[in-house]
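Input for the complex:
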Amino acid sequence: MADRRRINGPPGGTRPPVFASLQESSTGVATRVQRQRQPTELRKIFLKTGLIPTASGSSYLEFEPSASLAAARSNPKSLIPPSSALKLACTVHGPKPLPRSAAFSPNLVLTTHVKYAPFAARKRKGHIRDASERDLGVHLETALRGAIIAERWPKSGLDITLTIIEAEDDRWWGDAPDSHDASWGMMNVLAGCITAASAAIADAHIDCLDLVSGGVAALVSDDSNQSATSAPRLMLDIDPAEHRSILSACVVAYMPARDEITELWLKGDSSRAALGKDDGRTGHEALIDGAVDAARGANTVLAEAVRESIARSFA
Amino acid sequence: MASLPPIAIPGQRLGPLSTYSAGPGTHVQQSFIYASIAGPVVADPAQPKSQTRPTLRVSRVISPKDQAGSIPAVPVASSVTSKPRYNTLPAVDSIVLARVTRVQKRQATVSILVVLDESAAQSQDQSRTASDNDNVASILTSAANPENHSSTDELRFQALIRKEDVRAVEKDRVVMDEMFRVGDIVRGSVISLGDQSFYYITTARNDLGVVMARSDAGNMMFPVSWKEMRDPVTGTTNGFAPFVKWPHSGSTSNNQADSASVHPYVRGRSSSSPEIIGIHECQQNHNYTPQPSL
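Predicted:
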């Protein structure tokens, strides 16, 4: 409910418009960022647990900035960063008693909150969680609920709070929204949330079936290479700012030791994938496989971070 | 038998169910034992009577028992982890330390401060329990401090001590107001997970009861008998918080002496006829950590 007694600013925050003509300034045309990685190459992940002493478990996750962002930081040509890199913090509080009004529960009651910092994305977010943030929270809860052994913690609740400090872009900032547009950045954010939350839960010593990690794959058509048969290609761990057009994307939450998926989120049109000739998979099968591969990659980082956390707490 | 990893992370396969049986911190899937929390792997040797296979478990904290265990888990530094984590839930039969928050005619409401480590509580070599007494003492002194009575009770598990569960004998003569006062620290045993909001706790055992209390004047009180505590400064038993333990007529003195030496907070007078003893004698018999400022 908006405060009616004061003159409020615009609810979404503002940002000065950037016109196409401005991009051709004295420093030359603002260059599109390009993906420098191989299609199956993931960005590096920084993951550390136990940074928040008052929480029973916590973690901090950061994706490596893309090559273009790193170049722009060292040699700035514009005040506008060409792309962004995911940064998020996760805290786990609990197991703690349920509120008095709550009904008896023989299992652990899981609550997830995902909140963007107001400055996390190019468009400012409000202080109240909006629909997309609540949506992310529900997806995250689904992903974690399959991994936690809830019956070992009767009558108690677990609060998982994720703060997105820097979010991924949905498209290159200079692009106008087009028909293929969707909030692709959210999918990367969800994958990061899953990995970070899993590390924080392990840090809090909550019983889990396995470490669950998130991965993203996407079908991308880059028209820039002018080849007539530019069918969409499968790429792992996309940075949406680096691609002209993303046709579809997929996030999975994956437990490698059991080879199980606890959360699957597909978005877009995956029917036009250009796979190998002897590849009998459909587009969405290839997408899911790609996302699982990305999640496996993230899991190696996750396992290492959990080992570090153990070594630290028992040293 | 494959060698066990020193440290496990969740989802790591530890061993087949044909060789081990699954203990705390593990789960079983397709006849293999997997770790479900991160921590050092401990294999407890098989007890010849009850079971035939060693029990695999993943430890939450490093206790001295684990370090001396059959399997050298990790090269541990001598100091136990600096920030102990008590995120264990109260279970049936676990020993807890709780602070009284409300006294009613039929029951007392307490909030659970610490769930004592299960392995420490069960181990026969009771001198081991002294290892976590330092932490417990610090928690208790801070909790008994009236300034620390903040709103953190919301975050603690609540429990009830019913009138019938206060002591084992003469249950019908129990007067709750004389047994507990708000702020007392009680050592109790969980008898039930209870309803949606409360656990149920009993103090009807020799090693259970009020272990720390303050008088009306705000001074620490000390037990002078099996059922009375006294303020050493004012010398009054005014507002006394009785020690709820009732000596069993058939209890052996050996038993009593044991429990007194085990836990510095547990006072046991072995005499079956209660007598008031002097403060000095009391201190000689039981080495209390907080010394009264006379």
